[in-house]
Specification:
The chain has 269 residues and is α+β, with helices and mostly antiparallel strands. Helix content is 19%, strand content 33%. The strands form 2 sheets. Strands 1, 2, 3, 5, 6, 8, 11, 12 and 14 form a 9-stranded antiparallel sheet that branches. Strands 4-7-13-9-10 form a 5-stranded antiparallel sheet. This is F-box protein PP2-B12 isoform X1.
Length: 269
């Protein structure tokens, strides 16, 4: 009489299998559902997907401008990773990175500090059918281009490297957007002068090829452009206060126009 070898997972209680799967990744958990009916039930349990969701996800979802209804934690994860929700009176967008479950934010133009944005001669607030926000900022003309956005590091996922991006468009008529200083700084740790000294150069729009060392915009699937302003590491449990992404072009007598801003995005790398 022969003794068949047993897969140890087949004799484990479902709760134990769920606990094991919760230490993997969302992609691994989704693949585990195809192994067997037993694995499917364990891999789709709230025990697993609650680990993949941010610990403060209930507080975040509760501030959504529209009600988020899902049947289970897995459905909530996929809802947040495929469809951003609007928070804070519709001026902040939140979603999860599909692969890692890390938190992502897009600060609307209305949440940014934009020099002279309250003067219609320089900036206008318009609607755009591609935008998730009610309004975007349209640049008529300025000499000083100064755009800043801050977010608290505690709102972001810990132990994660993030990049900050300007999300924008260029109108048919534009000028002076070929060279802009870009930087990211921890507000409590670095002064504005220190940040400016290590600024990089980004290209928002150019009519001729530029140097490879300068960062160029990339086309997004949502109809907008993005350009990386900089990146930073959000440490494990360290309270770095606010992190600020900043674009600055202060060249005198150098008019700029034709920039359309949706917002500043913070996403994990």
């Amino acid at each position: 009489m022969t003794t068949k070898s047993l897969n140890p997972f087949t004799i484990l209680p479902e709760g134990c299998i769920s606990e094991i799967i919760s230490f993997t990744t969302p992609a691994d958990a989704a693949r585990s559902s195809a192994i067997s009916k037993g694995f499917k039930s364990a891999a789709e349990s709230d025990v697993v997907w609650d680990k993949f969701l941010p610990s403060d996800h209930q507080d975040i979802v509760s501030t959504s401008v529209s009600v988020v209804v899902t049947d289970c934690k897995k459905d909530l994860y996929f809802r947040l990773s495929h469809s951003p929700i609007l928070l804070r009176e519709g001026r902040l967008s939140f979603w999860l990175d599909k692969t890692s479950g890390k938190k992502c934010y897009l600060l609307s133009a209305r949440r940014l500090v934009i020099s002279f944005s309250d003067i219609q001669l320089f900036w206008e607030w318009i609607s755009d059918t591609d935008s998730r926000f009610p309004e975007v900022a349209f640049l008529n003309t300025v000499d000083l281009l100064d755009i800043r956005g801050k977010i608290g590091t505690r709102a972001l996922s810990l132990g994660t490297k993030y990049a900050a991006y300007l999300v924008f468009k260029i109108s048919e008529r534009y000028h002076g957007l070929e060279s802009t200083n870009a930087m990211v700084r921890f507000v409590n740790q670095e002064s504005e002068d220190e940040a400016e000294k290590r600024a990089t150069t980004v290209i928002l729009a150019a009519r001729a090829p530029r140097h490879l060392k300068e960062k160029l915009p990339e086309k997004r699937t949502d109809g907008w452009l993005e350009v990386e302003i900089g990146n930073f590491y959000n440490g494990e449990g360290d309270d770095n206060g606010d992190v600020e992404a900043w674009l600055l072009d202060s060249r005198p007598f150098h008019a700029k126009c034709g920039l359309i801003i949706e917002g500043l995005e913070f996403c994990p790398i």
